[in-house]
Design a protein that fits this description.
The complex is a heterodimer of chains A (271) and B (248). Chain A is of the alpha/beta class and 271 residues long. Chain A has a single domain, classed as Rossmann fold (3-Layer(aba) Sandwich), CATH 3.40.50.300. Chain A has 11 helices and 10 strands. Chain A is globular and about 50 Å long. With 248 residues, chain B is mainly α. Chain B is 79% helix and 0% strand. In chain B, 47% of the residues are buried. The chains are: A alpha/beta (271), B mainly alpha (248).
């Protein structure tokens, strides 16, 4: 019974909690993402989005609660869970000094993809994201959009069941954003891949996601399709629904030294 | 095995592609070698202590490795801040292997720099007393380098910015270097300095290199190697411990 259930739900979080000292970043959240679904995870800065993604992707250990990915517990079956997902992080995570091909190759080895399959798979994916011609260029010569595409290709290399996209379109121009979502939609359709993403662009979420969860102050305050959320709140579109749910006050994200440092780095790269 | 290889290869590729790093990393030891070797060399000779350049070369090789290896830790901070580390942390590979593969890459580059300094010192007139022992000196240098790259990676894992790393460099690595037997013989130094230098693991590696390259030793080669072995074990353990604790 439980097994069947797990087959249909790709991600299942049960009472997921993360506390840092006295501060509760994520407070007993539970949700299910079905296999093949495009699921958006929205929320203001500091609401607990990143912390949740980190717990889902084994980077942080939950204080309480559990998560399964494709039926594997992320804490107890860490390596199996890790092979089940691909991720495009919010911050760039490529090695700039290596070429596109070398970055792909490194990933393939880390995920234990057999040598024979490796070359075929890398070529296939680099063609898919239109980077095959640039395979031998160092990543530091790439534009922001090209890096993003490469990261997506890399995340798909080991045939994951779920692809996590953490603000994948941040800092990209409208054309690149469009293209990127086209890619992702196609992947979702063609391979039935489950997509879990966060974004601050609500029109993207409305256009792409089948279901949305909104998190605020560490608690999931609403779940449903974009239509359901707008109806529930009696608003005209997702943006208004979102604002009516989370309020209009600005959030002061706590920026510690490390975050500030990282942001400086990002600003430098965007130039 | 292949995972270790690809992580090693990544470090080598990065190293080869940044030529400025190669030049920068041997510039400082070379300055020491020339300035001290010739500057103090004449007084040293007049004092009847023999050839200072020969005495200094093993110390400078150790310096190259010490600073090179700790500085290599910056790669890890860089990876941590600019994201590449996350790519490895979510991969189905243990932290131990990530650390070992990367540290072996760091070790290779740092030892290569040590060899460069050795070759330059040959051009300046340095001669090892027995060429057959040079490979053994290379092994000592490699062990020392591996211990320190693990330490550097561990430090990098524990601190969050370059400033913190710099501070450690200033308050730990510089004293470790200057308060060792790298630059002066320990025979006639004040007692306090002698005690400090005698509990400093850097002294023992320098001493081992001296034993193997110029046939001079203060502590005795056996003791040098024993201390080096313990140092490797402790610093590797520190690196692994610190690396395991990384949460991003």
């Amino acid at each position: 019974m439980r097994y069947n259930h797990a087959m249909q739900s790709m991600i299942e979080a049960q009472g997921l909690t993360k506390r840092f000292g006295d501060f509760t970043a994520v407070d007993r959240i539970s949700f299910t993402v079905r296999a093949g679904e495009m699921f958006a995870f929205l929320g203001p800065n500091g609401a607990g989005k990143s912390t949740t993604i980190k717990m889902l992707t084994t980077l942080l250990t939950p204080t309480e609660g559990s998560v399964t990915l494709a039926g594997h517990d992320v804490v107890r079956e860490q390596d199996k869970a890790r092979t089940a997902f691909g991720i495009v992080f919010q911050d760039p995570s490529l090695d700039d000094e290596l070429t596109a091909y070398e970055n792909m190759e490194l990933h393939a080895v880390l995920y234990g993809i057999r040598r024979k399959e490796r070359a075929v798979r890398i070529e296939e994916l680099l063609i898919l994201v239109n980077l095959w011609e640039r395979r031998d260029s160092r990543v530091k010569t790439f534009s922001g959009g090209m890096k993003r595409r490469l990261e997506i290709a890399r995340g798909l290399l080991h045939h994951p069941h779920v692809l996590f996209l953490d603000e994948p379109t941040l800092g990209l121009d409208a054309q690149t954003r469009n293209l990127l979502w086209d890619h992702v939609r196609e992947l979702n359709k063609r391979e039935g891949m489950t997509i879990f993403f966060t974004t601050h662009y609500l029109e993207e979420a409305a256009a792409v996601a089948q279901r949305i969860a909104i998190i605020d102050h560490g608690i999931i305050i609403a779940t449903g399709s974009p239509d359901v959320l707008t109806k529930q709140t009696g608003t005209k579109n997702l943006e208004e629904a979102y604002l009516s749910l989370t309020g209009k006050t600005l959030r002061d994200e706590e920026v510690n030294a490390r975050e500030a440092f990282r942001m400086r780095g990002r600003a430098r790269r965007m130039r | 095995m292949e995972v270790l290889y690809i992580l090693w290869l990544r470090q080598i590729r990065r190293y080869i592609r940044s030529r400025s790093r190669i030049i920068g990393a041997i510039g400082q030891p070379l300055l020491f070698l020339l300035a001290l070797g010739y500057g103090i060399g004449s007084i040293y000779k007049r004092a009847g202590a023999g050839d200072y350049l020969s005495f200094l070369v093993p110390g400078i090789i150790a310096q190259t490795i010490l600073f090179g290896a700790i500085f290599w830790g910056i790669v890890i901070i860089w990876d941590k801040q600019f994201g590449f580390l996350k790519e490895t942390l979510v991969a189905p590979v243990s932290r131990l292997r990530i650390l070992t593969g990367s540290a072996l890459g760091g070790t290779t580059t740092v030892v290569f720099q040590g060899v460069l300094v050795f070759v330059i010192s040959l051009a300046l007139g340095f001669r090892p007393y027995n060429w057959a022992l040079v490979p053994l000196a290379l092994v000592v240098a490699a062990l020392f380098a591996f211990a320190l790259t693990c330490f550097g990676a561990g430090l990098a894992a524990a601190v969050n910015d370059f400033q913190g790393f710099q501070a450690i460099n200033q308050f730990l690595i510089f004293p470790l270097y200057f308060l060792s037997s790298a630059l002066f013989p320990l025979d006639n130094v004040p007692r306090a300095l002698k005690i400090i230098a005698s509990v400093n693991p850097v002294s023992y590696t320098v001493d081992a290199l001296r034993a193997l390259l110029i046939h001079e030793t203060h502590f005795g080669l056996a003791k040098d190697l024993a201390v080096l072995g313990v140092t490797v074990a402790i610093l590797l353990a520190f690196g692994v411990f610190s690396f395991r604790r990384i949460e991003s």
